[in-house]
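[09:14] KT: can someone run the structure on this one? pasting the chain below
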Amino acid sequence: MVNVLIRNIKAILIAGRYEYILADITPYLIAAFISLETLQNLLNNLELFILGLIVMFVAHFIGTHINTLSNYASDLIDKPRLSRSVDIIGERNLLRMFLTELILGTLLVFYLTLYLQRLILLILWWIGCFFAIGYSIRPIRFKRQPFLGIISRVIAIYVAPILFGWFLFRQTLSFHILLIALGYAIAIGGMFPAGELKDYWGDLKHGDITASIALGPKKATITSLILVPLGGIILILTFGWLALIRSPYPWFHIVFLSVALLSPIKGLYKIYSISEKVLDLNYYKEVKKEAEKHLRWLAMFFTPAIDSFLLLIGW
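[09:31] RB: done, structure tokens below
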């Protein structure tokens, strides 16, 4: 019985794409740390911070569980472990989990909205849910539209959580948080065309015309090579500006983020050099292996959360 329980928990985590949890809570952490400004403010608002973090965890599983459920057929080709996790859990059970998560998340955000008297929190929650669910679920399935698919993910995973984390502690918007949201939208949105090459044949077979398919492998990687550094530079400049105001070591922050946020360029260029091999099934695995490294690139975009915390503690 214990083995069955462990097997089911493991399947739930796999279906919930546990490897992306850190990347998905990063925008919230950044916004929360920047809006709170000092460690004392964080400690004074610790309960609120934890509640916001729970909202982000629930939001992550809402998006990933419905995505895994909706992509069952295409994942049989490119991501069989996800399809196997659905088989273990059961489609109906996974759907029940998704609905439970959606209800619990909504109730928690509704409570925060009433407690803080900030309707914007509930609005951002539903905007995020709409695009996260609409990306996967039929008949909406934004994933079938190459650029709308990218926009929906960027709004759901990055822009909405950044603004949610900000308004959880502040009542008015600031220019620097808008620049951070813009930088993330451009950088992460720009990462998808190259990263989606790993699912090229599975998406093509099931009619999901992603950006990598619509643009073609070469143009998709060129797009990523342009947008990822552009978004990274916006983030570096914005955090550099904040560091000049809040930190005694501003150049450390600038160098730290420059090394981290511009590091994906090398990997993207390597994908560009072999991108056309994706069209040949004999060489597809080579491109797929390189494109799967996009998870490492996403990890690099966790560094602004570290930097935000360093600013929070006055370093």
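[09:33] KT: thanks! Residues 253 and 307 are 7 Å apart (CA to CA).
[09:34] RB: yep, looked fine to me
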